[in-house]
Amino acid sequence: MRSLARSAVSAVFPGRAASATRRQALFLFLFACGTVPPPRELVDARSAYQAAAQGGATEQAPAQLHEARQSLNVAEKIFDDKGDSPDTRDAAYIALRKAQLAESAGRTMMASKEAENLGKEARDVEKDTLSRTQRELQKTREAFEREKHARELLELQRIANVRQESRGTVITLSGSVLFASNEATLLGAAQRKLDEVADAILKSNPDATIVVEGHTDSAGKAAHNDELSRRRANSVREYLISRGIASEKIRSVGVGSGRPIADNKSADGRANNRRVEIVVEPPK
Asked: Among 46, 51, 54, 140, which one has the highest count of C-beta atoms within 10 angstroms of its own C-beta?
């Protein structure tokens, strides 16, 4: 093509003096044939736009990429009209810079989203780790509380009959240990036992709600038994208050002979029925 163009130019412009004219004519001929190579700036602008479109700007920076595409179209149009001219190179440089900016914006947005995702993953891992740690800590606390409660029960069982019921921990003390026959005044030995009971309750659950129940056997009149059981329960309540248990946390009830745990027909049975039950209610 170039040989053909030189022949055509030589035929039209013979002689050395016409070399500049030849070159211009050759350019016009090549341009007319569509073979004029684009300037380096336009080639770079095309490559930069392609890199931006493939590098994430299509999704992450569509506005900047669209602007770069428009600038490249302008440069291409000027090249079509004027070829490798200063105007073409200027327009191509603008298109190059806008394509580079679009690519940079796309990369920045992708990096920002990646950082956000990594941060979310890190927060999720931290949250999951914290949750597992809290669960393990709760299990440890519960195990400790169970062990502590078992030790306290063993300690109480040295001085009284202790059992677990739905209404709570029931501490049973024999009436013959606490009171003289038909009396509601605590004996000296009873006070020492109640000291240990009060200490155990205050160590294990100082905020517990407590009910003191007085019980009698069925001998005698029911009204007398009811009154005696009420007075005995109140005596125990008052003593436990004196040992540090909050008065608003403890109340007394006289049950009388209404809830026997043994047969009232025998002396042993009646002795078992004469009792005081200290009920430590479960947390609500």
From this structure: 46
